[in-house]
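Running co-folding for adenosine-5'-triphosphate.
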Amino acid sequence: MAGEWTVSEATANGWSAKPVRARVPGASARATGADARSAVTSKAATGDLASDAAVIEGRVVVARDRFTLDIDLRLRPGERVGVIGANGCGKSTLLAGLAGLATLEQDSTVRFGGEPWRSTPVEARGLGFIAQDGLLFPHLSVLDNVAFGPRSAGKSKQQAREIAGRMLEAVRVGHLASASARSVSGGERQRIAFARALATDPSTLFLDEPFAALDVDASVEVREIAAQQVQDRGLSLLLVTHDLVDAVRLTDRIIVIDDGKVIEELATCDLQRAPASKFAAAFAGLARVPGHLEAQAFKTKSGLRIPLHGLETEPGLVTGASALLLAAPDRVELTCDDASNGGASGPVLQDAVESLVGDGSAVLARLRSGLLARVQSEELPTAGTEVFVRIRQARVRAAEAH
Ligand SMILES: Nc1ncnc2c1ncn2[C@@H]1O[C@H](COP(=O)(O)OP(=O)(O)OP(=O)(O)O)[C@@H](O)[C@H]1O
């Protein structure tokens, strides 16, 4: 299956071989901390992850008015999965169904740690949930917000408060324990929400855009805490996000949802290299130029002929096949001349600027060919300017339905 977890994928993502916690919801034998890390490191080294029971596995069906979500999901211990898709495609509904916040339909066959959902109460599913707005109980102190979960799970008041105090320290807001939940800032609230989610000792975290409402400084801190806690605890993760950096930093595998169905599944390290769907390509910031293959060239629908020399072409593509050219804006540059028409540095073609667009941190020129090129803000070309374009890196792949 695409995206099965491997050590190389994790390291390609900039993470060291990831600790995986050898526990699943409902399991009685639990390994934590160093035990789990060493056990899993050796499993990863021998490639023997297939024997781990999935923490979540099976069909998830949720019906909401005219919308139906129907998804087969498999999340393995310690695996981190990003859930992406357009607004309203069902990302939050997936998490809500699994976490008992939306009703699962009878057709659902999902199991938690091998146990059928019907016989697994929500509190026994091993889930911690953090949404965009931390949703603290406003009438409780910060400490009691975090102690609420352990207390509900049967801990004494004192034990629950001790756990809560430790969790608040772990996310660096121990000093807020006695504050009212009403008085905290957005960044503090999300840290407290992490402490509260972790206080029930979950095996899996559900993060539903937890950084989206934070300002730049707070989001950097909360992201760092999330990454650290997920890694240190070897948590499995389902992350709903609209942010490429979060997807790349926090996940190993991506599922792309459209209208309640999974339309694509890929390793995160392939997101910027070989996305299949239009949504995944746009999410990764790639230009996606339709056309077809000619001898030694890719011909765009607009009639531009791009020599293939220096580009990556999917094996098996034959002349005449419908194809897509995928290129990241920072691998496409505007140049003054057509000195090189192919070679190691990539083909050069004549194009024209259609418009300037922003991607949040940079200015991009959208070109007549459909390519995007990053441009320096002090040398902005105007719409209509004829330019030469060097494609330093691009991939030509078969066109697919999505
Ligand atoms: N409580 C609800 N009752 C009825 N319909 C709902 C409810 N919550 C969501 N929906 C509908 O379910 C569909 C999926 O919504 P959902 O919130 O899961 O999408 P999403 O992918 O998370 O979107 P976004 O990216 O905008 O957060 C939408 O059509 C939405 O209107």
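Result summary
The CA atoms of residues 271 and 374 lie 19 Å apart.
The chain has two domains: 7-270, 286-398.
Job closed.
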